Protein backbone atom coordinates (compact mmCIF):
# COMPACT_ATOMS: atom_id res chain seq x y z
CA UNK A 1 0.00 0.00 0.00
CA UNK A 2 1.49 3.34 -1.06
CA UNK A 3 0.72 5.71 1.81
CA UNK A 4 1.68 9.41 1.57
CA UNK A 5 2.97 11.48 4.47
CA UNK A 6 0.01 13.86 4.34
CA UNK A 7 -2.10 11.99 6.88
CA UNK A 8 0.49 11.64 9.63
CA UNK A 9 -0.15 14.98 11.34
CA UNK A 10 -3.86 14.24 11.76
CA UNK A 11 -3.10 10.73 13.00
CA UNK A 12 -0.67 11.92 15.64
CA UNK A 13 -2.90 14.78 16.78
CA UNK A 14 -5.84 12.43 17.29
CA UNK A 15 -3.78 9.89 19.22
CA UNK A 16 -2.25 12.55 21.45
CA UNK A 17 -5.68 13.90 22.35
CA UNK A 18 -7.41 10.53 22.80
CA UNK A 19 -4.63 8.98 24.86
CA UNK A 20 -3.30 12.04 26.67
CA UNK A 21 0.20 11.65 25.26
CA UNK A 22 3.06 13.98 26.11
CA UNK A 23 6.32 14.22 28.05
CA UNK A 24 6.13 11.72 30.88
CA UNK A 25 4.02 9.23 28.91
CA UNK A 26 5.42 5.74 28.33
CA UNK A 27 4.04 4.07 25.20
CA UNK A 28 4.32 0.33 24.60
CA UNK A 29 5.63 -0.92 21.24
CA UNK A 30 3.38 -4.00 20.98
CA UNK A 31 2.80 -4.50 17.26
CA UNK A 32 5.29 -6.28 15.03
CA UNK A 33 7.22 -3.93 12.75
CA UNK A 34 5.55 -5.63 9.78
CA UNK A 35 2.17 -4.11 10.75
CA UNK A 36 0.99 -0.55 10.18
CA UNK A 37 0.12 -0.23 13.89
CA UNK A 38 3.83 -0.42 14.71
CA UNK A 39 4.46 2.78 12.76
CA UNK A 40 1.66 4.49 14.66
CA UNK A 41 3.15 3.37 17.98
CA UNK A 42 6.61 4.63 17.05
CA UNK A 43 5.41 8.01 15.84
CA UNK A 44 2.83 8.75 18.53
CA UNK A 45 5.47 8.14 21.18
CA UNK A 46 8.55 9.81 19.73
CA UNK A 47 6.75 12.78 18.13
CA UNK A 48 4.80 13.61 21.30
CA UNK A 49 7.83 13.66 23.58
CA UNK A 50 6.86 10.33 25.14
CA UNK A 51 9.09 7.37 25.90
CA UNK A 52 8.78 4.33 23.61
CA UNK A 53 8.96 1.06 25.56
CA UNK A 54 10.34 -1.81 23.47
CA UNK A 55 10.87 -5.43 24.51
CA UNK A 56 11.76 -8.87 23.12
CA UNK A 57 8.85 -10.74 21.56
CA UNK A 58 8.66 -13.28 24.39
CA UNK A 59 7.92 -10.49 26.86
CA UNK A 60 4.97 -9.34 24.74
CA UNK A 61 3.13 -12.66 24.97
CA UNK A 62 -0.41 -11.93 26.27
CA UNK A 63 -0.76 -13.09 29.84
CA UNK A 64 1.80 -13.02 32.63
CA UNK A 65 4.80 -11.93 30.48
CA UNK A 66 2.99 -8.89 29.04
CA UNK A 67 1.42 -7.97 32.37
CA UNK A 68 4.81 -8.07 34.08
CA UNK A 69 6.34 -5.89 31.35
CA UNK A 70 3.59 -3.27 31.65
CA UNK A 71 4.15 -3.02 35.40
CA UNK A 72 7.96 -3.11 35.36
CA UNK A 73 8.27 -0.48 32.64
CA UNK A 74 5.51 1.74 34.08
CA UNK A 75 3.71 1.84 30.73
CA UNK A 76 1.01 4.52 30.64
CA UNK A 77 -0.49 3.91 27.16
CA UNK A 78 -0.78 0.68 25.18
CA UNK A 79 -2.52 -0.45 22.01
CA UNK A 80 -3.56 -4.07 22.52
CA UNK A 81 -5.86 -6.07 20.21
CA UNK A 82 -9.06 -7.44 21.75
CA UNK A 83 -7.87 -11.02 21.16
CA UNK A 84 -4.83 -10.39 23.36
CA UNK A 85 -6.87 -8.76 26.12
CA UNK A 86 -9.25 -11.70 25.96
CA UNK A 87 -6.64 -14.10 27.35
CA UNK A 88 -5.57 -11.76 30.15
CA UNK A 89 -7.20 -10.93 33.46
CA UNK A 90 -7.95 -7.36 34.44
CA UNK A 91 -6.14 -7.69 37.75
CA UNK A 92 -2.86 -8.43 35.99
CA UNK A 93 -2.69 -5.01 34.34
CA UNK A 94 -2.13 -1.77 36.28
CA UNK A 95 -5.33 0.28 36.41
CA UNK A 96 -3.64 3.54 35.41
CA UNK A 97 -2.75 2.33 31.89
CA UNK A 98 -4.79 3.87 29.08
CA UNK A 99 -5.81 1.18 26.59
CA UNK A 100 -6.53 1.58 22.90
CA UNK A 101 -8.16 -1.40 21.21
CA UNK A 102 -8.09 -1.80 17.44
CA UNK A 103 -7.59 -4.27 14.62
CA UNK A 104 -10.80 -6.25 15.14
CA UNK A 105 -14.24 -5.92 16.69
CA UNK A 106 -14.23 -5.68 20.48
CA UNK A 107 -16.88 -7.86 22.19
CA UNK A 108 -19.21 -5.90 24.51
CA UNK A 109 -18.34 -8.09 27.50
CA UNK A 110 -14.62 -7.52 27.00
CA UNK A 111 -15.14 -3.77 26.65
CA UNK A 112 -17.17 -3.66 29.85
CA UNK A 113 -14.63 -5.69 31.79
CA UNK A 114 -11.55 -3.75 30.71
CA UNK A 115 -13.02 -0.23 30.68
CA UNK A 116 -14.13 -0.41 34.31
CA UNK A 117 -11.90 1.90 36.33
CA UNK A 118 -9.61 2.86 33.45
CA UNK A 119 -9.52 4.92 30.25
CA UNK A 120 -10.13 2.72 27.21
CA UNK A 121 -10.91 3.82 23.65
CA UNK A 122 -11.71 2.00 20.42
CA UNK A 123 -10.05 2.95 17.12
CA UNK A 124 -10.82 2.00 13.53
CA UNK A 125 -8.91 2.40 10.31
CA UNK A 126 -7.22 0.39 7.57
CA UNK A 127 -3.69 0.81 6.27
CA UNK A 128 -5.23 2.49 3.23
CA UNK A 129 -6.29 5.40 5.46
CA UNK A 130 -2.96 5.84 7.28
CA UNK A 131 -3.78 3.42 10.12
CA UNK A 132 -6.68 5.24 11.77
CA UNK A 133 -9.83 7.03 10.58
CA UNK A 134 -12.02 7.15 13.71
CA UNK A 135 -11.58 7.03 17.48
CA UNK A 136 -14.29 6.56 20.08
CA UNK A 137 -14.91 8.43 23.28
CA UNK A 138 -13.84 6.51 26.41
CA UNK A 139 -15.73 3.23 26.62
CA UNK A 140 -17.97 2.44 29.55
CA UNK A 141 -20.12 -0.54 30.47
CA UNK A 142 -21.10 -3.70 28.62
CA UNK A 143 -22.16 -2.34 25.24
CA UNK A 144 -21.18 -2.61 21.59
CA UNK A 145 -18.11 -0.35 21.30
CA UNK A 146 -18.61 2.36 18.68
CA UNK A 147 -16.04 3.10 16.01
CA UNK A 148 -16.36 6.67 17.19
CA UNK A 149 -16.02 9.88 15.21
CA UNK A 150 -13.59 10.91 12.45
CA UNK A 151 -10.11 12.05 13.40
CA UNK A 152 -9.10 15.56 12.22
CA UNK A 153 -9.20 15.96 8.42
CA UNK A 154 -10.60 12.46 7.83
CA UNK A 155 -13.85 12.29 5.89
CA UNK A 156 -15.97 9.28 6.73
CA UNK A 157 -19.15 8.46 4.82
CA UNK A 158 -21.72 5.67 4.97
CA UNK A 159 -23.18 5.30 1.48
CA UNK A 160 -25.79 3.16 -0.24
CA UNK A 161 -25.27 1.27 -3.52
CA UNK A 162 -25.84 4.50 -5.48
CA UNK A 163 -23.21 6.35 -3.39
CA UNK A 164 -25.86 8.37 -1.55
CA UNK A 165 -25.38 9.12 2.17
CA UNK A 166 -27.54 6.96 4.40
CA UNK A 167 -29.76 8.29 7.16
CA UNK A 168 -28.90 7.64 10.83
CA UNK A 169 -29.59 4.03 11.71
CA UNK A 170 -29.48 2.85 8.09
CA UNK A 171 -26.69 0.44 7.18
CA UNK A 172 -24.42 1.24 4.24
CA UNK A 173 -20.87 0.71 3.06
CA UNK A 174 -18.12 2.72 4.69
CA UNK A 175 -16.01 5.02 2.49
CA UNK A 176 -13.01 7.06 3.63
CA UNK A 177 -11.38 10.11 2.08
CA UNK A 178 -9.07 12.95 3.03
CA UNK A 179 -5.31 13.58 3.15
CA UNK A 180 -4.59 10.21 4.77
CA UNK A 181 -5.90 8.10 1.89
CA UNK A 182 -3.27 5.96 0.17
CA UNK A 183 -2.33 6.42 -3.46
CA UNK A 184 -3.16 2.80 -4.19
CA UNK A 185 -1.55 -0.63 -4.25
CA UNK A 186 1.97 -0.78 -5.65
CA UNK A 187 2.01 -2.28 -9.16
CA UNK A 188 -1.64 -3.39 -8.84
CA UNK A 189 -3.57 -0.89 -10.97
CA UNK A 190 -6.71 -3.01 -11.36
CA UNK A 191 -7.12 -3.58 -7.62
CA UNK A 192 -6.35 0.08 -6.94
CA UNK A 193 -9.05 1.19 -9.38
CA UNK A 194 -11.57 -1.13 -7.72
CA UNK A 195 -10.96 0.05 -4.15
CA UNK A 196 -9.99 3.71 -4.68
CA UNK A 197 -12.91 5.32 -6.49
CA UNK A 198 -13.78 8.87 -7.56
CA UNK A 199 -15.06 11.00 -4.70
CA UNK A 200 -18.33 12.65 -5.79
CA UNK A 201 -18.29 14.83 -2.67
CA UNK A 202 -14.82 16.32 -3.17
CA UNK A 203 -12.98 18.47 -5.70
CA UNK A 204 -12.29 16.97 -9.15
CA UNK A 205 -9.58 14.34 -9.04
CA UNK A 206 -10.07 13.36 -5.41
CA UNK A 207 -10.74 9.76 -4.44
CA UNK A 208 -12.25 7.81 -1.61
CA UNK A 209 -11.39 4.36 -0.32
CA UNK A 210 -14.07 1.71 -0.40
CA UNK A 211 -13.46 -0.26 2.80
CA UNK A 212 -15.89 -3.13 2.28
CA UNK A 213 -17.09 -2.61 5.85
CA UNK A 214 -20.74 -2.05 6.69
CA UNK A 215 -21.59 0.62 9.23
CA UNK A 216 -24.27 3.04 10.35
CA UNK A 217 -24.44 6.42 12.06
CA UNK A 218 -26.28 6.96 15.31
CA UNK A 219 -28.45 10.06 15.70
CA UNK A 220 -25.61 11.54 17.75
CA UNK A 221 -23.17 11.25 14.84
CA UNK A 222 -21.26 8.25 16.19
CA UNK A 223 -20.20 5.49 13.81
CA UNK A 224 -21.12 1.87 14.58
CA UNK A 225 -19.61 -1.20 12.92
CA UNK A 226 -22.11 -3.71 11.48
CA UNK A 227 -20.09 -6.25 9.48
CA UNK A 228 -18.49 -6.92 6.13
CA UNK A 229 -20.13 -6.36 2.75
CA UNK A 230 -18.74 -9.65 1.46
CA UNK A 231 -20.18 -11.78 4.25
Automatic annotation (TrEMBL):
Domain AMP-dependent synthetase/ligase intervals: 1-186
Stretches that traverse the bilayer: none
Keywords, sorted A to Z: Phosphopantetheine, Phosphoprotein
GO cellular component: cytoplasm
Listed GO MF terms: phosphopantetheine binding
GO biological process: amino acid activation for nonribosomal peptide biosynthetic process; secondary metabolite biosynthetic process
SUPFAM superfamilies, per the entry: Acetyl-CoA synthetase-like
InterPro entries reported in the protein's UniProt record: AMP-dep_synth/lig_dom, ANL_N_sf
Pfam families: AMP-binding (PF00501)
Protein name: Non-ribosomal peptide synthetase
Organism, as annotated: Streptomyces javensis
Amino acid sequence: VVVPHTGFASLLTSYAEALGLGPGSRVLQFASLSFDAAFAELCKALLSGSTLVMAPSERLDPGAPLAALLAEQRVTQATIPPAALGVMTVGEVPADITLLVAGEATPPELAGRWSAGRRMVNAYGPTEATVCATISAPLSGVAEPPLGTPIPNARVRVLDAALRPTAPGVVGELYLSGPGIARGYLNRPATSAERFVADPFGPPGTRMYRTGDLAKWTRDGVLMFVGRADE
